Amino acid sequence: MRPLRPLFACLLGLPLLLQAAPAPGDGFPKEARVYFIGLKDGDVLPPTFKVKFGLKGMGVRKANEDIFDRRTGHHHLLVDQGIVPKGDIIVFSEKHIHYGKGQTEATLTLPPGPHVLTMQFADGAHISYGPQLAASVRVVVEAAAPAAQPAGKP
């Protein structure tokens, strides 16, 4: 029976350990926020443009470096998608662009028309911090200008 005592002690302490750890998406500084730099609602953009991500109250860190650090994370850009709820994993797709190397800006190419860009901050395991660490802008992407014709040709 003696060899089982450490096992029982661990099992009894497990609920306390689980309670002490913040739930996925929780535990980040309450004053933290994200914002777009130089991009605002209603902007008319060319098909290819630069997006800059702003962050206050937290740090940027590469994905998977420390998945339990609730003071850091990395950016995601969601194209024509809603905010990812707190605690949900941000999927990998063409419309969910991950910047897991710690990037704070990117060049994006979109088709012409209206678009909603949502910046979503997430932890090292791609778990969303929710609406408090998300920001959205509505933009219109213009059609590409037609190629110039050589002089003297109709």
Q: Describe it for me?
A:
The strands form 2 sheets. Strands 2, 4, 5, 6, 8 and 9 form a 6-stranded mixed sheet that branches. A 3-stranded antiparallel sheet has the order 1-3-7, with no helix packed on it. It has 1 helix and 9 strands; from the N terminus they run H-E-E-E-E-E-E-E-E-E. It has one domain: Immunoglobulins (Immunoglobulin-like). With 154 residues, it is mainly β.
CATH-assigned fold name: Immunoglobulin-like
Q: Work out the helicity level.
A: 10-25%
Largest sheet, in brief, is: 6 strands, mixed
Unreliable spans are: 8-21
CATH class: Mainly Beta
Structural class: mainly beta
Number of domains: 1
Outline type: elongated
Question: What is the element string, with H for helices and E for strands?
Answer: HEEEEEEEEE
Rg over C-alpha atoms, rounded to the nearest angstrom: 22 Å
Number of strands: 9
Tally the helices: what do you get?
Answer: 1
Let me know the CATH homologous superfamily. Answer: Immunoglobulins
Question: How much is the average pLDDT?
Answer: 84
